[in-house]
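Notes, Module 5: Reading structure tokens.

Key idea: the token line is not a picture. It is a compressed description, and you learn to read it the same way you learned to read a sequence, by spotting repeated patterns. We will look at two proteins. The first is printed below with its tokens.
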Amino acid sequence: MIIRRERGQERPDKRTVGKREPGTRPRVRKGESAASDQGRKPYAGRTDSRELTSGKRVGKTKVIKTASGSKPTGTGRFGKERTSDVFRRNVIEKKSERKFEGAESDQYLNKTGKVLRGKFGKQNLNNEFNSTSRPAKTAASKKEPGSMRLNRYIANAGLCSRREADTFIATGCVTVNGKIVSEMGYQVLPGELVSFNGKIISAEKKVYVLLNKPKGYVTTLEDPHADKTVMELIANACPERIYPVGRLDKSTTGLLLFTNDGDMTKRLTHPKYNRKKIYHVYLDQKVTKNHLQEIVDGINLEDGFVAADSVSYVSEDDKKQVGIEIHSGKNKIVRRIFEHLGYKVEKLDRVYFCGLTKKDLPRGRWRFLTEEEVSLLKMSSK
């Protein structure tokens, strides 16, 4: 058993060494002989802090006096207590009487009266009180019938996703009834006016429109330098403000989705979700099998490495037509892949996009997605 001195307790001048029991012959000190120790009481060491300054012999004994002139009391040689007695009284007995500091103290008791013991008892108590002492939600942040979170309201208006809306709210771009709102959990009540950068917005129902884009149209909302934009093709589709999901360059045709669902737009276009897209490519010359394998293995372009998921001939009779499946959303990625290998793309058509096809949808026409298609998109975008 290890016995440690308590803090503040004076260190004894001499202590017992080893496992020597009281009453046994002590060690012979310098200048003494073993014979001179016969009949002497066992030496127990000094433990008194009082300074011994003077003394005189009376017969064969020496009377010890302290600085104050009084005689020390106690037992053992020089009127001192034995070291083992001092340690037993000051250390062992006190240690056995010590109790848990927080067991009977309300600084470690929670509101239910439970004692929080252990190394992190006080810390856990502080965390518990901090969690219960938080200020109550404001009236604006409490959910009421018909209310909607502000970030969701902005996303439903077709401006951006919910996460992007949180950024706009924090920067003070959003006002409710003319007052700037920076609270993330703010609930918009029916009839309140929400403005974004000074323009009033409204939460609209979700709309999903699929267009078979013809050649010669630019995928943009507004472009004063463009002759024709894809927004002209869906101008009369719905009163809600919808925008394209992704891009198709001016000379590329095929499927293009429009919606005002900001959250779904982000999931369908972000590279980490790996949305499947299939293109029908018409080339100026026959494509070799070695180049098809190279496209699947991967090619290093000027903006990084890219690899197709799969590639094959559309028909064995015409090896100028290739079908390529790719999930990368880089600008003009399909054209750049084939141009890197020495081919010229004469025509490019997107025939598949996130589970949607252009079946029964003529070029330049649009249609609303069915409920089943919308459910499929939501499931695939989770």
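Here is the second protein, with the sequence above and the tokens below, as before.
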Amino acid sequence: MAQLVLSPRLMIGEGWDDFALIDSGHGRKLEAYGPYRFIRPEPQALWSPRQADWAADGEFIPGSDEDGGGRWHFDRPVPRDGWPLARGDVRFTASCTPFRHLGFFPDMAPVWDWMGTRLAGATEASTLNLFGYTGVGTLSLSQFGPVTHLDASKKSVAQARANAALSGMESRPIRWIVDDAVKFAAREVRRGRRYDGIILDPPKFGRGPEGEVWRLEEGLPGLIGECARLLDVQSRFLFLTVYAVRMSSLALAGLLDEALRHLPGTIEHGDLALVETGEGGRVLPTAIFARWSMN
């Protein structure tokens, strides 16, 4: 039976050559993505900015609906088709999407590194990336063995494949699948499949390729139950992240505790966060997570 650690953990991401959290405050954040700077909404930045001048190339102006909407305003030209960024050997395209983000989630960097420590030394580890989006996490995992990358969006999967080509990783053993995550996981259970690791980053609300409706609070317990059946005592990890919900990381940990009682190991939970660059940089929380791993 896995041990549930009640004390929360922090996974804090720092900037790298192609990304930095420069400043935050008054419900916004200023970030650098390669040569461009952007301002985006950040409700958890309750404090005041450290810097007076937030010169940026663009800003996302949110709509009146707290669940979405808004538009980009640009003060300087920004490539609408995106521009290349890199982290280590993984190269990918950043772009200003209609959903206020830039085509990847930089606060996931410590998660990619953590998964690498769980798989250290492996060359044939089989991993599953549900809600895989544009594939930065998939490409990070692919150095350890075959990866199944799944997303309900054909556009996202196409971008993930383009990122694989940009990284010179198109020949790696990656299955690219457009499907509903719940249906796919259930089919994998029926097929008797198993994985060494699973990462999932489900949205608050979404639709599958055939119009399937996903609501986090309703669908997550069942999906985690299916994922648990795809793991065994030889597996290394399951990592779950959740953004933009009024929920505690301890609730996520409780869900994993129930679903993974048949396995040994450790269940932990806490916050993902980014730290501002420079002296006195503050830690900005971005998401909650729960994770299971073998000791």
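Summary for the second protein:
- The CA atoms of residues 153 and 282 lie 35 Å apart.
- The mean pLDDT is 95.
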